[in-house]
Amino acid sequence: MYKLDEFKQLVRDFSDVADFLVVYVAEAHSTDGWAFTNNFNINQHQSLEDRLSAAQVLVEKEPLCPVVVDEMNDVTAVKYGALPERLYVLQAGKVVYKGGMGPWGYNPLEVRSFLEKMK
């Protein structure tokens, strides 16, 4: 959520060259886990319904692209090393850009530079 506005600007600026998708994975800073102060009140997901409900918080922030939810076994997060967050660009089913692991490696400006070369 911290850099959602930057992500939304990417969607606005590059929707002509890329399709965007957010995969909501396990909550990194759950209220009943390792939480920040002033964070969203989201507990660790115990069921798919919990995860869907938590993802709704993101959907309400209007990310300007579809939001899907990882399975409870975290297959997508594990496959892509996406805990707590990560940016990827895929082209023809192949990873062509793999951003650093979040939160410090989550860099929408790097993705912007990459996508500008694709225009």
In short:
InterPro entries: Iodothyronine_deiodinase. The protein is an alpha+beta fold.
Could you explain the architecture of this structure?
The structure is a single chain. By secondary structure, this protein is α+β, with helices and mostly antiparallel strands. The chain has a single domain (4-118), classed as 3-Layer(aba) Sandwich (Glutaredoxin). 34% of the residues lie in helices and 13% in strands. The chain has 4 helices and 4 strands. It has helices at residues 4-14, 48-60, 75-80, 108-118; strands at 22-24, 67-69, 88-91, 94-98. Strands 1-2 form a two-stranded parallel sheet. The chain has a two-stranded antiparallel sheet with strand order 3-4. Strand 3 (88-91) and strand 4 form a beta hairpin. The longest helix has 13 residues, at 48-60. The radius of gyration is 14 Å and the shape is globular. The protein starts with a helix and ends with a helix. The mean pLDDT is 85.
Shape designation: globular
- Summarize model confidence as the mean pLDDT: 85
Order of helices and strands: HEHEHEEH
Helix count, per DSSP?
4
Biggest beta-sheet profile: 2 strands, parallel
In CATH, the homologous superfamily goes by the name: Glutaredoxin
Number of strands: 4
Annotated CATH architecture: 3-Layer(aba) Sandwich
Structural class: alpha+beta
CATH class: Alpha Beta
**In what range is the share of β-strand residues?**
5-15%
Helix content: 25-40%
What is the terminal-to-terminal distance?
Answer: 27 Å
Low-confidence stretches: none
Can you tell me the CATH topology? Answer: Glutaredoxin
- Provide the spatial order of strands within the biggest beta sheet: 1-2
Organism: Scophthalmus maximus
InterPro entries: Iodothyronine_deiodinase
GO molecular function, one term: thyroxine 5'-deiodinase activity
Family: Belongs to the iodothyronine deiodinase family.
